[in-house]
Amino acid sequence: MLGKEFRALPNIYLVGPMGAGKTTVGRHLAELLGREFLDSDHEIERKTGASIPWIFEKEGEIGFRSREKTVINELTQRRQLVVATGGGAVTQAENRAYLKNRGIVIYLYTPVELQLQRTYRDKNRPLLQVENPEQKLKDLLQIRDPLYREVAHYVIETHQGAARELAQHILRVILAAESH
């Protein structure tokens, strides 16, 4: 399945809220394309030697977003990648420009109920360590959904199908659009 059309495709960036499945779907998509997969949050942790919660605790969200901007700029300058971004990456105008102008952006739209199910016990999500995580997810989606849509070339709903099926669907959508 690895034809010339796959090598010709630019990088593919997955955006969306926490719990959308960006990392899981991204791994499958990279496998289908024969590309390297990277997660921007994991790259931040690798470069700093510190966990995301620790960075948030010591530097606050502003410090984290600064690190995130540097990593996204670096990743979007590489080639033949599939990249999963952190849920808040789109809050920075620079990140939106890097993503939209340097590849194909897929917004994995996920309803809040599903996000809550998928993130319920995850202590690695500093923004959800609040009294009412469901309300926090609703508030974040209200702010970020327009930004995800602004940057996205394609919006894919994630509430149906397994991650591998979603990756195959994304690839079909991109190839159909690129062939026109």
TrEMBL record:
Reactions performed catalytically: shikimate + ATP = 3-phosphoshikimate + ADP + H(+)
Cofactor note: Binds 1 Mg(2+) ion per subunit.
Pathway: Metabolic intermediate biosynthesis; chorismate biosynthesis; chorismate from D-erythrose 4-phosphate and phosphoenolpyruvate: step 5/7
Cofactor or coenzyme needed: Mg(2+)
Keyword match ATP-binding: yes
Keyword Transmembrane applies: no
Similarity comment: family membership: Belongs to the shikimate kinase family.
Function: Catalyzes the specific phosphorylation of the 3-hydroxyl group of shikimic acid using ATP as a cosubstrate.
Oligomer status and interactors: Monomer.
UniProt-recorded name of the protein: Shikimate kinase
Source organism: Acinetobacter ursingii ANC 3649
